[in-house]
Write a structure and sequence with these properties.
Blueprint (H helix, E strand, L loop, with lengths): L8 H8 L3 H9 L7 E2 L5 E2 L3 H14 L4 H8 L5 H32 L3 H11 L3 H16 L8 H7 L10 H14 L2 H20 L9 H14 L10 H15 L5 H14 L2 H14 L9 H12 L5
Antiparallel strand pairs: 1-2
Helix pairs in contact: 3-4, 5-6, 5-9, 6-9, 7-10, 9-14, 11-12, 11-15, 13-15
Length: 313
C-alpha cells in the first residue's frame, strides 16, 4: 500500500502500533480524519494519517491534552510554542517530585510523627516567594530599624537561607527546623538583642575608627587560653581577661569599669543561646555551605566564668 493507497483502521493499527480503538477515537474527534469511505461505509485513510498518528502518539505520551493535540496537528498553534510551555510544566512537576522524594527520605530517616510530617510537607511546599517572605519577616524582626551603617548588609546576606529547587533530604529536614526556629518569638527576641548589642558597639567605636565585632575580639583573645587549658577562675587567666576588656573598651569607646563589664556580660549572655549556633548550622546545610565545626559557645562560656569570678570594679 504505497503512493496513493488508502488504509483501513486495521492497516493503520498494524503500521503504528496503536490499537484500533485508539485510532477510531482520534478519528471520531477529527484529529485524524478519514480520507474517504468504502461503499459499505468503512473508513479509509491516506498516507498523511500515518504521520499524524505518530505525532499524536508522541504528544499524548508527553502529556498534552486532546484539545491541544488537535490544534498542533491542525497547525492552529506552533508546535514549538506548545513544546516550550509543556517543557516548563514538566520542569515544575520534576521539581515537585524531587521535593516529595526528599521529604519522604527525611521522614524515613528521622522517624517523625504524623504532626511533624504534615508540618514538614507544608513548609517545604511553600513557593519560593512564600519562603522568602517567611525569611524576610524573621530578618526584619531581628534587624529592622537598626542602623544600616552597622555592617548589617553583609550579615543579612550571610543569614538568609535559600532552599534549592531540588533539595536533598538533609536540606529539607534542615529547612523545616530552621523555618520553625525562625518563627519562635523567644528566639527572635534573643537574636534581636544580639543585633542591638552589635549595633550599639559598632556605633560607639565609630569615632576611633574601631569597627571590629566584639565576638571576634573575644574569640581571638580567649581561644588560645581555652586551647591551652587555662582555668578561667585562676590568676593565670587575668592577662587574658585584661586584654579582652581593653580591646572591648576601645571597640565601644568607653573606659574599663563596672558599666563596661556589665555591658560585655550582657552581650555574652545573649549569644550563649545554643539556638543561635543551631540556626547557623542549619543555614549552612540549607545553602550547601561548608559545615561550621568551630563553636563559639566554649569560648563565650570561658569568658563568662572568668568575669563572674572576678569582682566588678
Amino acid at each position: 500500500m504505497d503512493g496513493d493507497a488508502l488504509y483501513s483502521i486495521g492497516d493503520l493499527a498494524r503500521r503504528t502500533g496503536l490499537t484500533v480503538k485508539a485510532i477510531r477515537f482520534y478519528s471520531d474527534h477529527g484529529i485524524v480524519p478519514p480520507t474517504g469511505r468504502t461503499p459499505v461505509g468503512h473508513r479509509r485513510y491516506g498516507t498523511e494519517a500515518l504521520a499524524r498518528l505518530d505525532l499524536v502518539r508522541t504528544l499524548r505520551e508527553l502529556g498534552l491534552d486532546l484539545s491541544t493535540v488537535r490544534k498542533v496537528v491542525d497547525r492552529d498553534i506552533p508546535l514549538s510554542e506548545v513544546a516550550a510551555a509543556h517543557a516548563e510544566a514538566l520542569t515544575v512537576q520534576i521539581r515537585t517530585l524531587r521535593l516529595r522524594r526528599a521529604v519522604l527520605t527525611a521522614i524515613a530517616r528521622r522517624g517523625t510523627t504524623a504532626e511533624e510530617t504534615a508540618l514538614m510537607h507544608r513548609l517545604t511546599r511553600l513557593t519560593t516567594d512564600q519562603r522568602r517572605q517567611l525569611v524576610s519577616e524573621f530578618l526584619d524582626a531581628v534587624f529592622g530599624s537598626l542602623d544600616a551603617d552597622a555592617g548589617f548588609a553583609g550579615i543579612l546576606r550571610s543569614m538568609t537561607p535559600e532552599l534549592p529547587d531540588d533539595p536533598d533530604a538533609e536540606q529539607v529536614a534542615a529547612w523545616m527546623e530552621l523555618a520553625e526556629l525562625s518563627r519562635d518569638p523567644d528566639f527572635r527576641a534573643g537574636m534581636r538583642r544580639v543585633a542591638e548589642h552589635y549595633a550599639a558597639d559598632r556605633a560607639g567605636g565609630g569615632a576611633t575608627g574601631v569597627r571590629r565585632d566584639a565576638l571576634a575580639t573575644v574569640r581571638e583573645e580567649v581561644h588560645p587560653a581555652l586551647t591551652a587549658g587555662i582555668d578561667p577562675a585562676t590568676p593565670e587567666a587575668d592577662p587574658v581577661v585584661a586584654r579582652v576588656l581593653a580591646r572591648y573598651a576601645g571597640l565601644c569607646g568607653r573606659p574599663d569599669g563596672v558599666d563596661l563589664r556589665r555591658r560585655l556580660l550582657s552581650r555574652l549572655e545573649a549569644v550563649r543561646d545554643p539556638r543561635r549556633e543551631r540556626y547557623l548550622q542549619l543555614l549552612s546545610v540549607v545553602n550547601g555551605w561548608p559545615a561550621t565545626t568551630d563553636s563559639l559557645l566554649p569560648t563565650v562560656d570561658w569568658l563568662v566564668r572568668a568575669l563572674h569570678t572576678r569582682p566588678l570594679r
